[in-house]
Amino acid sequence: MKEIFERNRLFWAIVIGAVIIGGAVYLKGSKEKPVIEPSLSSTPASGTCAAVPDLSDQSLKLATKVIDGDTFLIEGGYSVRVLGIDADERGYPCYDVAKTSLEELILNKEVRLERGPEDKDQWCRYLRYIFLGDENISLELVKEGLALARF
Fold it and tell me: Contact 132/72 with Cβ under 8 angstroms?
């Protein structure tokens, strides 16, 4: 028996290697997807948004921090969710590039916030279409392939 293993060492090395690689591939594929938390917001989800002031349609506000590819903060620390798009959340492939692109487009710039059908979401984020001058920021992110159009 020992003689058979000695003569076929290469064969057995290949078989053992294939089993190890196959097991690793199987285990990697069976990992659970990362749990995606709601985008960070300056206001916790409390059921009411009484602490978040009304924001008139077509308001001009300074974008002070970008949270991800479709959420940012405006002056006063209030969160805005960009309408018309859906960008990858933390832990997904395009998260960093979408966030960086949104930062390059709007960070520390005055943007126009156009109200959509609803004023705020369940996390008390303003729901707005975003414009920099006449440029539709949602459209730019979709054109660059960094977000999906969602209506």
Answer: no
Look at domain 59-149 and name its CATH class.
mainly beta
Which SS3 state, helix, strand or coil, does residue 48 take?
coil
| Calculated CA dihedral for residues 38, 93, 141, 148, nearest 10 degrees | -70
Structure token pair of residue 69:
């590819």
Rg from Cα positions in the chain: 24
Of the two residues 143 and 25, the one the predictor is more confident about is: 143
Q: Would you kindly state where each structural domain of the chain is located, as residue ranges?
A: 1-31, 59-149
Neighbours of 23 (CB within 10 A): 10
Instruction: Give the residues across from 79 on adjacent strands.
Output: 73
37 or 4, higher pLDDT? 4
pLDDT digits 0-9 by tens, 112-148: 999 999 999 999 999 999 999 999 999 999 999 999 9
127: left (phi over 0), alpha (psi -120 to 50) or beta: beta
d(CA 27, CA 103): 36
Question: What would the pLDDT profile of 4-20 be if each residue is shown by its tens digit?
Answer: 667 777 776 787 877 78
